[in-house]
Amino acid sequence: MTILVTGASGFVGSAIVRHLLAAGYQVRVLLRAESPPDNLAGLDIQQVIGDLTDAASLKAAVKGCSSLIHTAADYRLWAPDFDVIYAANVQGTKHIMHAALDAGIERIVYTSSVATLGVCANGIYANKTLADENTPSSLGEMIGHYKRSKFMAEAVVRKMAAEDGLPVVIVNPSMPAGPRDIKPTPSGQMILDSARGHMPAYVNTGLNIVHVDDVAKGHLLALEHGKIGERYILGGENLTLKDILSRISILTEKKPPRICLPHNFVLPLAWIAEKLAQITSTPPRMTVDGVRMAKKHMYYSSAKAEKELGYTHRPAIEALHDAVDWFQNHGYCP
Q: Is pTM beyond 0.90 here?
């Protein structure tokens, strides 16, 4: 059984590839010509060159595969041209799903995000403190182009499942942390900045931290046991940003930040950072969308995945430890 994995050179994708190989699957990976090879070095995989924006290349990539795990996405909260994010996340998802459908792929796992889900306003929705797969959300509630693009992409997948019989299971990971975050991702950058001692203050927000290897295992569980058309949150531990930074400070033997800044104080700083980024073409350290998102505590429950898939996750401190350890061992920080 050959499984095609998109986004395989990335943070989550490379973890999925490793777990597939360990489980005995044959793996084919779709890579762009410019994809960094580091995360796949030495792995027994078949590589094909293609691009989500090139529909013809995807037809060749899926040929002969029984399953598809579509993890590739443009995960940025800021970009000089946001159309690129929509092209990859929305149009690219549409292209690969149609290619899989035409090729008769038997099983698909689509990597969405908790970014597409609703959150519990003021920590509570319908007498619940944690958001789940049924917490309502809408495109109008999506903050920023990344979240909008992922919401639109998931809508494409859900529609194809309902109308075209697309054999897809959707997973919604929270904020992954761990080894091989080579870019790093926006969430990895936050961990790295903290490990470097570059975060002297914080805002009042909350996040769900999950080890990247738990996310990868969750993909395999969804592939083997997930119900077609359903979606499953692959999350971990819910923590305030203050608690996250405090744990990182313990791991790096640095003092934790003690200053909590109001969101409305940070917002204009983020706006200035983005304006400077447009001039320098260097991604800003903080973004307007990031600050706006931080106004809500993004806490989630993985109860459905635990019950239906047998999903489990480890404590957040282990994910943060492995992330910091990898960054330190690979020269990202002392």
A: yes
* Helices and strands of the chain, counted as H and E runs: 12, 12
Q: Give the CA dihedral 212, 128, 242, 182, nearest 10 degrees.
A: 20
Report yes or no on 278 lying in a domain. Answer: no
* Residue 267 belongs to some domain of the structure: no
Residue 124, pLDDT score: 41
- Residue 285: inside a domain, yes or no? no
Q: Name the 3-class secondary structure at 54.
A: coil
pLDDT at 126 over 80: no
Backbone angles phi, psi at 49, to 5 degrees: -95, 130
Task: Please name the residue ranges forming H helices in the chain.
Answer: 11-22, 55-62, 83-86, 92-103, 144-163, 186-195, 212-225, 241-252, 263-280, 288-293, 303-309, 316-329
Kindly list the distances between the CA atom of residue 202 and the CA atoms of 113, 129, 130, 141, 190, in Å, as whole numbers in the listed order: 24, 23, 22, 24, 11
For 217-247, write each residue's pLDDT tens digit: 999 999 999 999 999 999 999 999 999 999 9
The DSSP bridge partners found for residue 49 are 31
Q: Which sign does the torsion angle of CA 86, 91, 94, 95 carry? A: negative
Report the range of poorest mean pLDDT among 129-133, 211-215, 309-313, 316-320.
Answer: 129-133
Report the CATH number at residue 31.
3.40.50.720
**Cα angle: 118, vertex 124, 127; to 5 degrees:** 110
Task: Determine the pLDDT at residue 125.
Answer: 39
Instruction: Phi first, then psi: give them for residue 302, nearest 5 degrees.
Output: -105, 20
* pLDDT at 81 > cutoff 80: yes
Q: Are 74 and 16 in contact (CB under 8 A)?
A: no
How many domains does the chain contain in total?
Answer: 1
Question: Does 148 reside within a domain?
Answer: yes
Is the torsion defined by CA of 147, 150, 152, 154 positive or negative? Answer: negative
| Enclosing domain of residue 249 | 2-254+290-329
